[in-house]
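Q: Joint fold for the lines below.
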Amino acid sequence: MTSELDIFVGNTTLIDEDVYRLWLDGYSVGDAVALRVRSGILEQTGATAAVLQSDTMDHYRTFHMLERLLHAPPKLLHQLIYQIPPSRQALLIERYYAFDEAFVREVLGKKLSKGTKKDLDDISTKTGITLKSCRRQFDNFKRVFKVVEEMRGSLVDNIQQHFLLSDRLARDYAAIVFFANNRFETGKKKLQYLSFGDFAFCAELMIQNWTLGAVDSQVDDMDMDLDKEFLQDLKELKVLVADKDLLDLHKSLVCTALRGKLGVFSEMEANFKNLSRGLVNVATKLTHNKDVRDLFVDLVEKFVEPCRSDHWPLSDVRLFLNQYSASVHSLDGFR
Amino acid sequence: MPGKLKVKIVAGRHLPVMDRASDLTDAFVEVKFGNTTFKTDVYPKSLNPQWNSEWFKFEVDDEDLQDEPLQITVLDHDTYSANDAIGKVYIDIDPLLYSEAATVISGWFPIYDTIHGIRGEINVVVKVDLFNDLNRFRQSSCGVKFFCTTSIPKCYRAVIIHGFVEELVVNEDPEYQWIDRIRTPRASNEARQRLISLMSGELQRKIGLKVLEMRGNAVVGYLQCFDLEGESGLVVRAIGTACTLDKLSSPAAFLPACNSPSKEMKEIPFNEDPNPNTHSSGPSTPLKNQTYSFSPSKSYSRQSSSSDTDLSLTPKTGMGSGSAGKEGGPFKALLRQQTQSALEQREFPFFTLTAFPPGFLVHVGGVVSARSVKLLDRIHNPDEPETRDAWWAEIRQEIKSHAKALGCHAVVGYSESTSICEEVCILSASGTAAVLNPRFLQDGTVEGCLEQRLEENLPAGCGFCHIPYDELNMPFPAHLTYCYNCRKQKVPDVLFTTIDLPTDATVIGKGCLIQARLCRLKKKAQAEANATAISNLLPFMEYEVHTQLMNKLKLKGMNALFGLRIQITVGENMLMGLASATGVYLAALPTPGGIQIAGKTPNDGSYEQHISHMQKKINDTIAKNKELYEINPPISEEIIGSPIPEPRQRSRLLRSQSESSDEVTELDLSHGKKDAFVLEIDDTDAMEDVHSLLTDVPPPSGFYSCNTEIMPGINNWTSEIQMFTSVRVIRLSSLNLTNQALNKNFNDLCENLLKSLYFKLRSMIPCCLCHVNFTVSLPEDELIQVTVTAVAITFDKNQALQTTKAHVEKSLQRASTDNEELLQFPLELCSDSLPSHPFPPAKAVTVEKTSPMGEGNFRNRSAAPCANSTVGVVKMTPLSFIPGAKITKYLGIINMFFIRETTSLREEGGVSGFLHAFIAEVFAMVRAHVAALGGNAVVSYIMKQCVFMENPNKNQAQCLINVSGDAVVFARESELEVVSTQQPAANCQPACTGGEVTT
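A: Joint structure:
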């Protein structure tokens, strides 16, 4: 006796969150059944392995059929075939577009191209995330990228509107899209200690302050591309380190303001010139695409590492940077 | 020219890409009705075209309006080659033809293609202007309302119940016409869909005419079926009960609250039976009696002996081509005899209803059924389908005479079915013999009886159990006792019926689904020989099924079956029997005796031991079941003259109870005590039987199941419902198939299916599967297909326990329960921020939250049908009611037939993927039609046919599905009543709605 056909169709489509997670994680039906057995569900419910197998297959089939709609979430809302309560629809979408930290760190800043897709095997081996799940996450990144690139208006809003994601997830995707578009290098060993959240934080600030959208809110691609004029203007900062008087003045302003407030004051005082030079050099090079990509590497090398080697606490770094930029405004030529 | 049909094509959305080059589509629409076709303009290069067409007007006869479907075809314009069809929508405009139903059909319909499935949606508006000459119905019967519901619809009152109507139409099946060899599968499928649509329209119109002739205005319990007879044609047949219905002016009188649908009828039945006329009143639906009138088997021996219709011995009492109940006029009869004769004058005093107005049902005699095996031949003259009519007339006659033998003049809960394999066809009919109160059959004032009824304060809940037949002249051996309720009348020891449990019946404990399953191998044979072989097997099967049912009933410690449905399916090399029913313990009937096992060879020691071991197991199971189903009747053994003298020594053997079949030898009665049921283990077969008895696993805790509308003992349904269809097909290994192996396979299939359902629906616990409907088919030699449709309803455990008390208190309690619920709802809403709340209430609430939302959306939508609003929720249920809600309007019948075919089976996910998608699409199309009518639910939903054929080698599969139901508008009771009084609830719901919309 073999089962040829085995289906269950509800007027309201049944969604089992646990099975959905297993499916999203890319497990095969067999693996998913094994994992469910291990979770003790058989004992709780008195079901048999065959029942579990049938149930899992059925859910997988449903998810497979829903996947097409999940590629364009508004379709999921308007389609008539599967009757799903709105709260469940939201859950389906949110989970489908969720991603693994380990995975996103691997592809953040990479071009979302076929070439990268070929490397997913290695990423899968490295991160322990199934290849299937890697593909889904990668395709999600790429799909969102394709849809919102060359679109007017706020990046986060566009993503939210076209993919119906929560605010938080939409922001994350904005960061991913922004990084992919500008191809920031994030994979270097030196940068490994940074989490996706760290980069996403940077991305948000850069979108707010460095892009076309920061100046003019009605241009294509406004939140994706850095404002070229702004980068050009950064060249002017060179004077801060090139002009010896200005450098000294800047230093004395910062030191005066921070004296007694900084635990690492003497180290800061000793290192001021190096740090300032490092920061200004990073900024003035940003007109070259290559250097834009290396922005985070350079920042870490030129600024973060010197601070770290002197054991600056985070609060001191923050104080210093605030004062460093604030003081500039009182210098001649920057007023 | 009595009608003008107006159609407007508004827009399309989500269309498929038809032009690969541009990734777009140049869509236009053809609107066809009868022979007239209109076209819209081409809307170029868009997947979301906005046609906004003018009103297309069709001036047509009302006859055509009833028969023809409106056909909408969406096409892709192609300058250089033929235009490609994207898909079609068929709209049945019947609901627009009667005044109280829908006035406009407007909404998004899925565009359906028989090869590709649903491909986008189209927004259509349809209206009908009927001219005012509705008096001259000639061929049309506009205005007659149809209901699938097998009880009087909730917002109506039955003035007269006229009786049985039936009709059938036949045609050649387009799939088997010569032209099919040269046309595409798509064209062939569409021809079939269209033909069946036409035929159902015609059938409905003809039935409507009969109803008008009987001076009725509605058909209740309308059941329409297709027989795909292959080469010999296509038969569409329908049966129903003609009624005169009155719309209730104040629907408030009916509270379909969260418990039983027919709460309102909790009147007391009259106990004294003999003069049905005097008590016009009676409580709702007295069912009566007993069952194992195994009369059917009798019929076989005669009737099925040959497949040739002419041989049947049934007296043909001058019936014409099967039009029923011609004499629908009022019958005045004050005496039972008169009533009887009045009913007898009708050709067939049959009623397809399964639940009845209070006082309608007086006594129940038991199940009557008849089957007949026929050889199909080509229908030569489709306009005069005499053969098929004669076949059915014969069977109905049979049923009628069985009912008479039981002392009954009517048959209720009547249904008909067929099973076809190649050229052999088994026709089956079954129902419950009953004595009815003539008041409803005539033009009397029902008001009068109702009042009268209130005055009669008779013991409740047992009248229908009292035997209608003469105890000295019983039609079959039965064990009679005085009614345990009123002590005055005789009742049988067991009662089988095909109807729903009457609402006034006093039931102890809860009920449960009981199934008997059976397979019999049969040699492959041709024509006559095959028919004879089947005819010979049938009585045995029926007997076995019956035995199994009886054993399982005893094992559950229960004494009555409701909703009994026995399905016999014929295949190439086997016959399958599946009986489903809901077992209950009726307080009026005696406590069932246990089951006793007797060995044939009493001398063998180890054997004895084995037997006693089994006996112990059985006794344990019975005890366990009694506990599980809360069966603890009052222990009062010495009742006034309880055991009736005559049948004293009647210990019955399983194998001896059918009076009718001579083949069955009477077994030795000497074992066993008076009351016990003795199982004789004389061979391995019997051993198997006992084993299979014990292997039926009860549902996991928190689950109940039944195949009737509601479960006795559970009253507090929440509004969380989930209707579903589950299909399984297994392939038997063809090696050495024996009856036992086959039985085991079949049994496992059904049990596993049930287990899977329990597992899948575990989040709904505590929950009851209601109206569980199993259908078996044998699509190929080694394939068995089982299709189940049911609805899972969550109930509130705490309250359910309280309300199982005596039903006398029900009304009071109900009121209080309602209040409690109202109170509870808002409270729980607040508490539901704890998602892990382990108790059912929390769960119920979460759902409650979503559904109001859905309705909220729906309301918004109907107010402003803008394209972007979220899709409104449409509930579907096989029940005639919606828990916790009130049906405010019936919009018309939904009767849809779809074919789906694929030539890329693997790519669509194999057979499971294919069928899963198709069933989901069928649900979607039903919901879309209901929503377009302005409804938000389908009640009495049924999947009448699901014919699945595959050819994996060719990567092909085909499936036909036929579904029907009643489109309705319902309103939550909480919305209707609470809003004014319960502030919190009122506040909560809008809040939810708002939240929803934003998502």
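Q: Anything notable?
A: Chain B has a mean pLDDT of 73. Chain B touches chain A through 61 residues (CB under 8 Å).
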